[in-house]
Amino acid sequence: MDTSPHKSDFINVNGIHLHYLDWGGNGPVLLFLTGLGNNAHIYDKFAPRFTDKFHVIALTRRGHGDSDYPETGYDVDTLTEDVRQCMDSLKIDKAILVGHSMANIELCHFSALYPERIIKLVFLDAAYDRTSPIFKSMVEQNPLRHIPIPGADNDYYSIEDFVASIKKHYPYWAAIWSDVMDEEVLHNIEKSPEGKIVERMPDSILAALNDTLRNGYKPEDSKLQAPVLSIYVILDGNDALSSEYMTDEQKALVTEFFDVTRPPLTRECMEQFRLDVPHAKIVEISKGHHHCFIKHENLVFDEMRKFLLS
Is it the case that residue 1 has pLDDT exceeding 60? Predict the structure, then answer.
């Protein structure tokens, strides 16, 4: 049940309807953008904490949640134009953009095109150049890519069973599951004509988005002019371990990757961003979770609060 104190509505941009949530508040607009696969409800608990000083809004990207699912438009230019038209439609002249994960592309490209419309930028474990050899090496060396998940492709005919399967098969999600996730998932799924619970996002859209992330856009970090806060997470390998289906050998490989292999590569990405954006404030969360604004809510809130009010 959705209990977050927001207005839920749609805007027409680029010939499609995009969904957004508006928690109200007074002050500059704080516009939250989501990561791949998430919708605006992922911020149901976190975003309203800022309404005492800001007008807080979250946008659901095309191909996600309650927004439309056109076959095209998943390139960086169209996704960024969606954000611009959203701001125009809502009569937002300037905003603070806050983006998680994939939203790096919209934050960077929008800032490069319209620097005069940016007050500040906040990257929530987002400021990575996914086209770089370092990042690609990090992805390629991840042993989770080669560990099969038994039962992950089973069919489910109730939301309860579907959610239970996510928690069972994906320990990463189980580590942050809460009422927020219960609500968020409702906007990402639908019932097929056969009564199965299925993801709304088709594989073709997921593939197009991944192609944009990995090959279609190199972040224009050196063009960022506004004040920047970038939060990086050194991932906790325990959040990736499963006692349901992993062998001891697989667990050892996963632990070694997250504890030994990945951290220096993450810090290389961080240092490259520091070189490209020397005025950025960078915060590192050790043994953390990619959805840092959920797992480490108070820490992220405090860092954002200090940065936004400075």
Answer: no
Cβ atoms of residues 102 and 213 within 8 Å: yes
> Is beta strand 7-13 parallel, antiparallel or unpaired with respect to 16-24?
antiparallel
In this predicted structure, the answer to whether residue 151 has a pLDDT above a threshold of 90 is: no
Beta bridge partners, 122, equal 98, 229
Mean pLDDT along residues 211-230: 95
- Distance in angstroms (rounded) separating the CA atoms of residues 208 and 63: 10
7-145+202-308 to CATH, choices 1.10.10.970, 3.40.50.1820, 2.30.29.30, 2.40.50.100: 3.40.50.1820
Of 36, 94, 32, the residue nearest 59 (C-alpha): 32
pTM over 0.90: yes
Residue whose token pair is 């050790």: 286
Contact 103, 128 (CB under 8 A): no
The per-residue pLDDT for range 236-276, each reduced to its tens digit, is 999 999 999 999 999 999 999 999 999 999 999 999 999 99
